[in-house]
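HUMAN: You are asked to prepare a plain-text protein record giving the amino acid sequence and the backbone structure tokens, both parts labelled.

ASSISTANT:
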Amino acid sequence: MKQTALKEVTIAGARLQHFHIAAFFRSREEEFEVLRSYIREGIDSGEKAVHICDPSQKQDHLRRLEAMGVPTSNCLRTGQLEVLGWNDAYLKEGRFDGDTMMALLEELVMTSRAEGFSRVRMMGHMEWVLEEKPGVARFIDYESRVNLLLNRLKQPAICVYDVSRFSGATIMDVLRTHPYALVDGVVRENPFYVPPEVLLGSSPTDE
């Protein structure tokens, strides 16, 4: 596949200013309506899409993509679209490890580039952190450190949070790890963001 020139990434009508965004929604209907442009823009530009969701909702996820005009069968066949259950990503082998997850993300990007895709647009549903699995308590460290990886790879990623399922304290922790937030359908620069080297109390690497 021949790579094409990269176009600007837009989310909810706003030009992407950073590669890591926290998106807060109250329903799946709101989520797919607001993220429609981000998803369709990438697919229509020939970019790769990697979506991570609850494994029990994979078929619903695909149906919603199809409803917004994404030719899911063709995109899955060509490898332009990958929809992974979080048991094959964040919770691979039944536990969470931030280093393993970042290595997986980098491998996805490198493989996609080798296949000829100019960019990978990622999105991940984050309710897996509510499961009682080893390692999930350290997900905020991962959310902070992954900024470094995404900046280096220059690939956009949206972390999707259902606000009805998370405590206010957890949402504040999430805000501290994302430079931009999507709230009520609007992308905003996040005043609560704390750079990884400050939040983690050292100079973390993404290796």
